[in-house]
Every structure is written in structure tokens, then in C-alpha cells.
From TrEMBL:
EC number: 2.7.13.3
InterPro entries noted in UniProt: HAMP_dom, HATPase_C_sf, HATPase_dom, His_kinase_dom, HisK_dim/P_dom, HisK_dim/P_sf, Sig_transdc_His_kin-like_C
Protein name: histidine kinase
GO terms of molecular function: kinase activity
PROSITE patterns: HAMP (PS50885), HIS_KIN (PS50109)
Keyword Transmembrane set for record: yes
Domain (Histidine kinase): residue spans on this chain: 270-494
Sorted UniProt keywords: Kinase, Membrane, Phosphoprotein, Transferase, Transmembrane, Transmembrane helix, Two-component regulatory system
Source organism: Actinacidiphila epipremni
Residues spanning the membrane: none
CDD domains reported in the protein's UniProt record: HAMP, HATPase, HisKA
Subcellular compartments: Cell membrane
Length: 496
């Protein structure tokens, strides 16, 4: 399932990063712009109201008699309230505990004791924004002076009369709300533009990344001549240069290794070929000497048998080397014939005198018929059984079963609807865990102190090559009951 990979891809991360930056930048810019505009709007409205209020008080104050009576305070409040016809002003005038309001019964609840004290004590204009049941409002307090302005302060002496004004700020709040809506409407297009730019930027960034991924895959597939086109001088261009240098070094190293491997294969094949003729003569001589060994003295007979045994080992080693060189050169081929695999296993064991040593569990005759290479099947069974006899312990058993090609534990092959599964088991100590991954390696020794073995060290490698040549599989494992288990799966083709 590729969904988590897609969601966590570099393109998505780039787009999300750009979008987050755009959101933060847009919100921050919008918040700062909104704050500045809101402050400007409210400040402008506030300054206008205070200026108009002060002008109205200053123009009407000279007509106020002192000490003012209650009626004088009421008239003064009404005059100030109607000084601006387009403004809904509410005015309250106080003097020595007496109060007059422009609206009868107006409690003027917006006015706080602290504001009253500020106007009385500071003799200065005081204002405050408050929230009311009818919305936001601006409350302004102003002391009324009488007489000639003081030379030090520039203000007339206080008369004890204080005037308070409440002006609704609904219009200003409406402008602020409109500003908020405008910022919100501008944020969405800005975010969309940012995402579009992010997609374009991600496309530009990911193009060389995709090219690098494709080139890496081609290198993994064996196309070592793959190189990247380098554009620009940024970090991605530097990465492309590094990739090209690495690919060139890898190609050179692999070419050297292939040349060395080719020379080693040719050497092994040439040496094996040159040894076959003298070894054939030596084997013929040792056969003759073996026949006369009984007539020789004891020491001479022992030496003759030793030479015969070692010559046989050398012949088998050369034959194995020749066989493995054919696999390496790609010259190995199958000579197919339809046979009964169970019968072929019995012939292999009988030909080597193992029919009484190796137990068998085989399917009935003609049950496991298929088209295989009989010689290579003989090599597979003989090598596995011989390996179990040499390195394991009795009893050794060869089991065979036939399954459908798509059955669990079976490996299918083209042209086959059934497979034969051959298991060779022994009762020895099993294969050490550190050796299991290397049992099919050439000349691998689990005990490095052993300088030579009875076999060539190529038997299991040749077995694996023969199995793979048939399109089958081979595995090595340890049985829970003890001992090693080699499992071969061969497709039973019905057509050549």
C-alpha cells in the first residue's frame, strides 16, 4: 500500500511547508494591518469626537452663570447634546453633587467613579472606550473652566462644573468589522497563490530528485553507464555531480572485477581442460594397479590405494570445475526428457550403492512424471544424499511429494501446473546458523582449520545451479527434530 509513502512524500512536505509559511505570513501581515487600520479608525473617530466636544463646551461655557442653578445645568446639557445635529450625543453635567442629563432619567451607567475622580482631580480631558448593551461607546469627561486662563497652565481656573459625553461607536465598529471581512477575503486568495507557487517550486525542486531516483534505479538494474544531466550550481547540481562521479567509479570498479572474474573463469576452465587428459591416463593406470594391489606387498598396496583414491578425488574436482565453468560461461543447457522422478531417484541411489543406506518416501509410480534433464536430476539427488551421508548422521531419508504449482511452499514455473518437492534429511547435528547463508557458496568451509575435505567444495553450488537451470528453488534449513533439511522444488513441465 503506497498511501503512507505518498502522504509522506517530499512534494507534499514542500507544499505543506510553503502553505504554512504563507498562512503565517498572511495571518501576521493581516493582523498587523488590521491592528494599524483599527487603531487609525478608532483614533480618528475619537479625536474628532473629543475636538467637537471640547469646541462645544468652550463655545457654550461663557453663557453659563455661576454659581449655576439646576435649570442652568439642564440647559447647558441640552445645548451641548444638540451642538452636533448628526451625532447621537448623551450629555451629563455635574456641579457640587447636582446632576443634569440631556435625556431625562438617564443614569449614565457607563461613567465609572474612577473617571469622575480623574476629571475632578486632574482638571483634564479624560476618555474611555466601554461596552454597553447597545454596543461599544466612547465616554469623554471634561472640566469646565471660568475666567482668564492661568499663565502657568494655559487653562482657565476650574469652576467645579464637569461635563461628560457618551457617543455610540457602532459606525466605527462597523468599519472595523468590514476591515476584518476584507482581511479574511484576502487571506484565501493569498493562500491559494502560495499553494500554487509551492507546487511550482516543488516541481522545480523535485525534477532533479526524480531524475536522480530514476538514475539510481537504472544503476541498480545494472546500467552502470547511466549519468545525470547537470544544470546550475546549487546543492542539487552538486548532488548530481557526486552521483555521476560515484557511478563512473562504480562502473570502472565493476569493469575491473568483471575482467578479473573473466580471466579467473578462463584460467579455471583452461586448467581443468588441460588436466583432463593426463588425469584420464592416471585413472586408467590406477585402475590397473588396483586390480593387482592384492599381489603387492602391504606397503606398496597401501600406497597404490592412496594414489588411486586421491586420483579419483582429483578427477571429481576437475569435473566439478569444468561443470561450474560451463555455468559461469552460460554454456550449460538442459537435455529434457519425460521421466518418472521417483524412479530416477531410486536409480541414483542404486547406482552409488546407497539403496540400503538411504531411506526413501516416494510417490506411487507415474505420479511424479515430468520433463526434466535426467542427468542433472541425478546430480541433484546424488550431491544432496552424498552431502547428508558425509556431514550428517544416519538415518538419511529422501522424501518426494507432488503439489500444485500455486500451493503453499511450492514454487511455480512457466509451463508447469505441478511441482515435485524433494526433501533430503539427516539425523546429524544440523548446520550452524552462521553457516546456513553460505551453504551454497563455492569452496565455503564452516571450519577454517580444515585445509581439505572429501569433496571438491563445489557440490552444493553445482546442485543449486542445476536446480535454478530447471526453474526451481533450493533451500537449506535445520529440522526441529535435529539434522539438516535440504528442500528442492522442481516444476513438472508437460511440454518441452
Amino acid at each position: 500500500m503506497r498511501l503512507p509513502l505518498v502522504l509522506g512524500g517530499l512534494r507534499i512536505r514542500l507544499v505543506v511547508a510553503f502553505a504554512l509559511v504563507a498562512v503565517v505570513a498572511t495571518v501576521t501581515t493581516g493582523a498587523l494591518a488590521f491592528r494599524a487600520a483599527r487603531t487609525g479608525l478608532l483614533q480618528q473617530g475619537q479625536d474628532t469626537v473629543i475636538t467637537q466636544f471640547r469646541d462645544a463646551v468652550d463655545s457654550l461655557a461663557p453663557s453659563l452663570t455661576f454659581p449655576p442653578a439646576q435649570d442652568d445645568l439642564q440647559v447647558f446639557a441640552d445645548q451641548i447634546a444638540h451642538a452636533q445635529r448628526t451625532t447621537d450625543w448623551r450629555v451629563m453635567v455635574t456641579y457640587q453633587g447636582r446632576t443634569a442629563t440631556s435625556a431625562p432619567g438617564d443614569a449614565f451607567t457607563e461613567l465609572t467613579p474612577a473617571m469622575r475622580a480623574s476629571v475632578r482631580d486632574r482638571s483634564a480631558t479624560v476618555f474611555q472606550r466601554v461596552s454597553t448593551a447597545h454596543g461599544p461607546a466612547l465616554v469623554v469627561g471634561l472640566p469646565v473652566g471660568i475666567g482668564t486662563p492661568d499663565q502657568d497652565r494655559g487653562l482657565p481656573p476650574p469652576s467645579g462644573v464637569a461635563v461628560f459625553l457618551t457617543v455610540p461607536q457602532n459606525d466605527a465598529q462597523g468599519y472595523v468589522d468590514s476591515l476584518v471581512s476584507a482581511v479574511e477575503r484576502a487571506t484565501v486568495p493569498a493562500l491559494l497563490v502560495a499553494v500554487l507557487l509551492a507546487l511550482l517550486a516543488a516541481r522545480g525542486v523535485l525534477r532533479p530528485v526524480r531524475a536522480l531516483r530514476g538514475a539510481t534505479r537504472r544503476i541498480a538494474e545494472g546500467h552502470l553507464e547511466t549519468r545525470l544531466a547537470v544544470h546550475g550550481s546549487d546543492e542539487l547540481a552538486d548532488l548530481s555531480h557526486t552521483f555521476n562521479d560515484t557511478a563512473a567509479a562504480l562502473e570502472s570498479s565493476v569493469a575491473d572485477l568483471r575482467r578479473m572474474e573473466g580471466r579467473a573463469r578462463r584460467f579455471a576452465a583452461d586448467v581443468s581442460h588441460e588436466l583432463r587428459t593426463p588425469l584420464a591416463a592416471m585413472a586408467a593406470v590406477t585402475d590397473v594397479l588396483d586390480e593387482d594391489a592384492a599381489q603387492l606387498d602391504r606397503d606398496t598396496a597401501t600406497a597404490v590405494r592412496l594414489i588411486s583414491e586421491e586420483t579419483g578425488k582429483l578427477v571429481r574436482l576437475v569435473d566439478d570445475l569444468m561443470e561450474i565453468s560451463r555455468f559461469d560461461a552460460g554454456a550449460a543447457s538442459l537435455h529434457l526428457d519425460e521421466v518418472d522422478l521417483a524412479e530416477s531417484v531410486l536409480r541414483t541411489l542404486a547406482a552409488r550403492g546407497w539403496q540400503d543406506t538411504v531411506g526413501t518416501e516416494l510417490p506411487p509410480p507415474d505420479t511424479a512424471r515430468g520433463i526434466v534433464d535426467p542427468r542433472r536430476l541425478d546430480v541433484i539427488v546424488a550431491n544432496l544424499a552424498g552431502n547428508a551421508l558425509r556431514h550428517g548422521e544416519l538415518p538419511v531419508r529422501v522424501r518426494m511429494s507432488v503439489r500444485a504449482a500455486d500451493a503453499p511452499g511450492a514454487a511455480g514455473a512457466s509451463g508447469a501446473d505441478r511441482v515435485a518437492v524433494i526433501e533430503v534429511t539427516d539425523s546429524g547435528p544440523g548446520i550452524p546458523q552462521d553457516v546456513l547463508p553460505h551453504v551454497f557458496d563455492r569452496f565455503y568451509k564452516s571450519d577454517t582449520s580444515r585445509t581439505r575435505t572429501e569433496g571438491s567444495g563445489l557440490g552444493l553450488s553445482i546442485t543449486a545451479e542445476n536446480v535454478h537451470l530447471h526453474g526451481g528453488t533450493i533451500t537449506a534449513a535445520n529440522s526441529p527434530a535435529g539434522g539438516a533439511v535440504f528442500t528442492v522444488t522442481l516444476p513438472l513441465r508437460r511440454d518441452v
